UniProtKB/TrEMBL annotation:
Residues 154-191 are annotated as: Disordered. Residues 161-177 have a biased composition (Low complexity). InterPro entries: A/AMP_deam_AS, AMPD, Metal_Hydrolase. Belongs to the metallo-dependent hydrolases superfamily. Adenosine and AMP deaminases family. The keyword Transport does not apply. This is AMP deaminase. Pathway: Purine metabolism; IMP biosynthesis via salvage pathway; IMP from AMP: step 1/1. Pfam families: AMP_deaminase. The chain crosses the membrane at residues 6-26. Keywords: Hydrolase, Membrane, Metal-binding, Nucleotide metabolism, Transmembrane, Transmembrane helix, Zinc. Substrate binds at H429, K498, F499, N500, L501, K502, Y503, E699, D774, P775, L776, Q777.
Amino acid sequence: MEAYALHMAMAALVGASFVAVSAYYMHRKTLNQLLEFAKSVEKDRENGVTDDEEDEKNVLEDEKRFNNKKYVEKRKNRRKGGGLIGYYRRVSNSLPDVTKINGGGDEKLVNGGRLDMIDDRIPPGLSRLRKLPEAHEFKMFKVRLKYELSGQPLGKVNSTKSVRPASPKSPVASASAFESVEGSDDEDLTDNSKLNSSYLLANGDAGAESIFQTVPNHMNAVVEQNPIPAASMIRSHSVSGDLHGVQPDPIAADILRKEPEHESFMRLKITPNEVPSPDEVEVYQVLQQCLEMRERYLFREEVAPWEKEVITDPSTPKPNPNPFSYSPEGKTDHHFQMEDGVVHVYANKDSTEELFPVADATTFFTDLHRVLKIIAAGNVRTLCHHRLNLLEQKFNLHLMLNADREFLAQKSAPHRDFYNVRKVDTHVHHSACMNQKHLLRFIKSKLRKEPDEVVIFRDGTYLTLREVFESLDLTGYDLNVDLLDVHADKSTFHRFDKFNLKYNPCGQSRLREIFLKQDNLIQGRFLGELTKQVFSDLGASKYQMAEYRISIYGRKQSEWDQLASWIVNNDLYSENVVWLIQLPRLYNIYKEMGIVKSFQNMLDNIFLPLFEVTVDPDSHPQLHVFLKQVVGLDLVDDESKPERRPTKHMPTPEEWTNVFNPAFSYYIYYCYANLYTLNKVLRESKGMTTIKFRPHCGEAGDIDHLAATFITCHNIAHGINLRKSPVLQYLYYLAQVGLAMSPLSNNSLFLDYHRNPFPTFFLRGLNVSLSTDDPLQIHLTKEPLVEEYSIAASVWKLSACDLCEIARNSVYQSGFSHALKSHWIGKSYYLRGPDGNDIHKTNVPHIRVEFRDTIWREEMQQVYIGRAKIPEEVEK
Ligand SMILES: *[C@@H]1O[C@H](CO)[C@@H](O)[C@H](O)[C@H]1NC(C)=O
Ligand SMILES: *[C@@H]1O[C@H](CO)[C@@H](O)[C@H](O)[C@H]1NC(C)=O
Ligand SMILES: *[C@@H]1O[C@H](CO)[C@@H](O)[C@H](O)[C@H]1NC(C)=O
Ligand SMILES: [Zn+2]
């Protein structure tokens, strides 16, 4: 009995290996690699089922069939569904509509008869592939694949004994069958029954008979000794009724009853089993240096939020009833002053010892140049390119093997689906956060209800709203979305200047001034009301959150107070919203206008108020309460403007008095350094919320932007230029730097949608999320974030599981509080890997999370030559 089950399991194992071979082959397309690989498919000697020669022969047979172009195409279509009829489904064992599968073929497969199944796919007359002698060029990625099917809960799998009769093709793996044998292990039982799909289609007796006809010789001997129990097991299960037609599917029902944590899946272990060559080791060492450099620079909190605040109450966090109440908090003695563009903080006025000095500009630019040199080196590029491709193929292989298991796991998670998992719009500009229809309706209603409100001062006179429209020769009735003309179209492609003009409704800067500015004659009342409406829409959708980016320009120090008082006076607060501050890089314009004298003025205007309010909250009470909801600092503007790459010795900001805009990385350094000091020395030690550095980067322009942000930033918006640098892309992968990508937005500005690297990044496992950027210009519906997901899903054929994974990433990347995150994606979300996943909240199967985590750990070990120390928790 036991032996029989084992044999069946082994048969299934062989089938699975075969699938792996084929998937692998599809991608590498080289015969000798396949051979290399096939030889190394791990044999389980203990069980003694797989036979070397047999295997090799089979693989050769398989090659024939792989050569079939049609087949390859079918495979490409796989995600469209239905592409890979027989073959793919056979692995999938848990597909609900098994009745479509031809019974005969499956029975053969059940017995390990791969060839029979394959035969009908080899086109007649196809020549045998040449067999190449040896696979030398593939030494680096000599791959060992090993499949484990296990019915044990994830994370506790003992791989050495994991080959159990739980395989998909095992004909005896029915619940009732095992009950008597193993008895107690409930989870295993349900798993087994779930895996039994060929049973359904074979429908009982017929299946049972043919099984024994085709059992390979060496198995026959054993099997024949006890055919009766096996057959009766099968029958006993089939009593449950007619499995064809519209009857409720007992297996599907089983799956739905099952706890999702107990998923089993095909684990794929691809490990290089050759020591990296000295050259490769050298490359890995420079990559390590880059990663360590990032660790040195990046601001991280000393104490993680989950250590500070342990959440025991599982209920929904209560909304803050009084988000803007100010309670005096003590002034501290800290003394600060600007020195060479960076604020230095001292414990008190008389102290001469600077607290937590940050790396100075020369050090930063020297380090930046080192990174730039590394990412340009040919051998580093080649290796990273290889690794990235391998990552991509691993994910494809995973999908092939486990896609419908993931799907079933999702089905079995009660209540959750894509619509009610939390998703954060990680990158959206506040001045464009409403959609155009909304803006239009708002303008019309204001024109109807408040025509006599004095709204603007232009050309020496005060104008009411009615007069403004008269001066534009417009009535409320005339207004329509087309006339509003805020939508980005093909005229804006590669034209950032035109794109920015689109922020002006009807092409009129005065309408923008009235409706989309917060520092106008009506003190931004209209924009405040509009924002409240957006907030209430967001609140109504419940599962969508946003991080709005709002501008500080650095023209005067009072901007902060103005902004804070606008927020507080308009009571702009929502549980679903946090703020980021965006700094437009417009020094050259202010300089031309004579608003600032040097770059230093701009830095003063931006950072000094922040230090003041942090040292003494009483100095700007409104700003103090507003900053509690500010989670990040952003830098924006057109990156494609030409600029000179900074050298190691740059003029200090005070010396920067010419009319040219400083380079991107110059802005990055000074913002980074001041923010680091602010967080490290003051905000963290005083128990205040910290502000992360999350700039726009890599949308266009030079690659050194991405290098600078890699060293200094928590996460970035866009990052599409990573496609141009395999080394940086690989580094972003290893460090899991968050990327908030907006493929639709970049469609109108810089990069056609279908060329956007988002799907590639996603496959490779970069930490990506989807965001809207500018709903006003880009999106058409009331739920721009869902629109963004929906278009990505249909263009790139993302599955529900992919979408939920992206949504989960977006929560991680966002700056919401620890309490909210743990309510949204699970109370141990800060643990790495499947332990940190709660499928009941995220609808992301453990299978997916474990896969990503395993592959990432392997990659880190590869880079650190087996010496990576990976913490249990995600980064702070
Ligand atoms: C895994 O199984 C092996 C052999 O079956 C056993 O020696 C080992 O202790 C097991 N490990 C765990 C963690 O269960
Ligand atoms: C499931 O059990 C049935 C019983 O007939 C058997 O026919 C079928 O082959 C089994 N399938 C699997 C995948 O174990
Ligand atoms: C993705 O990035 C965010 C920060 O942007 C980070 O908190 C999160 O842990 C990252 N995800 C992973 C899987 O490392
Ligand atoms: Zn943006």
